[in-house]
Specification:
The protein has two domains: 122 residues, Nucleotidyltransferase, domain 5 (2-Layer Sandwich); 67 residues, no CATH class. The strands form two sheets. A five-stranded mixed beta sheet has the order 3-2-1-4-5, with helices on both faces. Strands 8-7-6-9 form a four-stranded mixed beta sheet. The protein is built from four helices and nine strands, in the order βββαβαβαββββα. Strand 4, helix 2 and strand 5 form a beta-alpha-beta unit. It is α/β, with parallel strands linked by helices. The termini are far apart.
Length: 208
């Protein structure tokens, strides 16, 4: 059996993004869907994934990728856990990428040419928690985004210097970006140990 399928999962918001690609047919096999699951992800995750890739074909998966957050505690945990279990059972690589890193290429399109030469921040206000931020840089040579600082709750020690962009979700586009990252890692045969992929929690689910 040829193992040539990629599967990626993105659940850092109220929607679930799922995408697949067959590396043997990269131009014709790409498939993606966004499911408005809200708080019901626990009950529908497996069914949503199987709409794009039936469980009978999961043994054909050769690599997975998952958005690790920041996002809702339960939603992020569920997809990361599913991806880790699949990667472990199938003995295949798993890539974990923050949701901010996935939206950074898209949001950087609004920057001027001059602004693209320096790092920029993505920020999001969390009610009663403060400001969440991550720092990124557009590598012009490689055309890729470099994550300089993972998303975290900002404090006085953080020097948040412009350009500063508001973190805005677009699950459909960001899921495809995740798929592109997974495909690139597969082509480069980049290591992807499943046990190192963990949810990115910027606040405690039990804090007041």
């Amino acid at each position: 059996m040829t193992r040539s399928l990629l599967l990626v999962l993105h659940s850092s918001s109220q929607s679930l993004g799922v995408a697949t690609l067959d590396l043997c047919k990269p131009l014709t096999s790409q498939c993606s869907e966004v499911f408005p699951v809200g708080r019901n992800l626990t009950n529908v995750l497996f069914n949503c994934v199987q709409e794009l890739l039936p469980a009978s074909r999961w043994p054909e998966i050769c690599r997975l990728a998952v958005a690790i957050g920041p996002g809702g505690f339960t939603g992020t945990r569920l997809t990361v856990t599913m991806a880790r279990i699949l990667a472990q059972q199938l003995d295949c690589p798993l890539d974990g990428i923050s949701s901010f890193a996935l939206m950074a290429p898209r949001l950087s399109e609004s920057l001027s040419e001059e602004q693209r030469q320096c790092p920029f921040w993505l920020v999001r206000h969390l009610p009663r928690r403060g400001m969440l931020g991550g720092r990124y840089w557009l590598n012009g040579r490689a055309g890729q985004i470099v994550e300089l600082d993972l998303p975290h709750l900002l404090n006085e020690a953080d020097e948040v210097i412009p350009p500063i962009l508001k973190a805005v979700d677009d699950v459909a586009r960001d899921t495809l970006t995740l798929l592109d990252c997974c495909a690139l890692a597969a082509r480069k045969n980049t290591p992807g140990p499943w046990h190192s992929v963990l949810p990115l929690y910027v606040t405690s689910p039990v804090s007041s």
